[in-house]
Amino acid sequence: MSTVLETEEHRALRDAVAALGKRYGRAYMTGVIREGSHPRELWSEAAKLGYLGVNLPEEYGGGGGGMAELSIVLEELGAAGSPLLMMVVSPAICGTVIARFGTEDQKRRWLPGLADGSVTMAFGITEPDAGSNSHRITTTARRDGEEWLLTGRKVFVSGVDIADATLVVGRTEDARTGKLKPCLFIVPRETPGFGRTPIDMELQAPEKQFELVLDDVRLPAEALVGDEDAGLLQLFAGLNPERIMTAAFGIGMGRYALGKAVEYARTRQVWKTPIGAHQAIAHPLATAHIDLELARLMMQKAARLYDDGDDVGAGEAANMAKYAAGEACVRAVDQAVHTLGGNGLTREYGLASLVTAARVARIAPVSREMILNYVSHQSLGLPKSY
What is the pLDDT of residues 94-105, one digit of tens each? Predict the structure, then answer.
């Protein structure tokens, strides 16, 4: 895929990560999934090479880059068939929030480990009765002397079983208005009252999904990230990187599927020529390639705006990038399976499991319908429908 808009350093990073991904590939990831394990070897090697913490500050062990660099890492691993979903959560969301808003003690405690991969952190925002409406979050934190008591439930939280802590989105009461406002707390995995139950998913992925129950979880004052009065700003500082990285996840997966389909179409011969010579095969694959390229351009724009500190501009672009990548990914995977016919549903070719996985980029972390609501209201100025 074309990289003319990237710097020489970005191209070098892309080539290096692609080489790492190629050494592991889809067979490695499917093996990990089959064993019910986690891609620890790939995670450790990517960390050792500095890829996992490439977006985090240098003074805390990171690479000093931003979302532009981190999205390249995830995209290229995905294009090799071995994406690391926890990259979306641990360095991108949690690492970014702590780096931007955490206290000095929080930065020193968590960022070096997040940067070198020795520490992972999950992110809990979705609730059973709230869905996309973050204003309906009922997980609440109340003061008890110098400490906090956190109570509530979360669902679809990735990787809690392997994460050292979870960054939980709750709400505190504003002493002046009595209204609830968002806040973020770091909850270590073994904290008393912090329970987790796995959710049985059809999705084939090494990262398990969990429901969390927080039953008067007692936390020290320093568990609160940043300023109690800046909760919404801090929350969206993590959600924009989440959307950018989900776009990278989708683009990488789409590229992997498209690559398999193109390779097959070049060599598979039923009549006199390879099937890729027929426009009914060639044109849909070309369209998929175009869609993925366009999605990547929007992802690059979103990453650039975010890294430049334009949170408002990045919010619009990150949502658009996530939408475009989700659609492009689903179409690319669908066309790849269709190109292979019956072979597209075999384990040998490894595409069938991506049909379910591709839907993730459409559904999470925010549905395409909510993105369309956002764009129609925020970008176009149309009346709000929700």
Answer: 999 999 999 999
Q: What's the rounded Cα separation, in Å, for the pair 50 and 64?
A: 11
The b-or-e profile of 246-277 (16+ CB within 10 A means b, else e) is: bbbbbbbbbbbbbbbbbebbeeeeeeeebbbe
For 186, the enclosing helix (H) or strand (E) is strand 180-188
Closest CA to 375 of 308, 321, 297: 321
Q: Check if the beta carbon of residue 245 is closer than 8 Å to that of residue 74.
A: yes
Decide: residue 230, CB within 10 A, 0-12 exposed, 13-18 middle, 19+ buried: middle
pTM for the model: 0.94
Residue 27 pLDDT > 90:
yes
- pLDDT, one tens digit per residue, over 242-254 is 999 999 999 999 9
Assign 364 to helix, strand or coil: coil
pLDDT tens by residue, 302-331: 999 999 999 999 999 999 999 999 999 999
Tens-digit pLDDT profile for residues 53-63:
999 999 999 99
Angle between the N-to-C axes of helices 231-267 and 352-363, in degrees from 0 to 180, rounded to the nearest 10: 150
The answer to whether 99 and 56 are in contact (CB under 8 A) is: yes
Please report the pLDDT score of residue 135 as a whole number: 66
Is-contact 170 152, C-beta < 8 A? yes
Count, in order, helices (H) and strands (E) of the chain.
11, 7
Of the candidates 116, 118, 98, the one whose C-alpha atom is nearest the C-alpha of residue 108 is: 98
Please tell me the distance from the alpha carbon of residue 34 to that of residue 159, in angstroms, as a whole number: 17
Task: State how far the Cα of 183 lies from the Cα of 232, in Å rounded to an integer.
Answer: 7
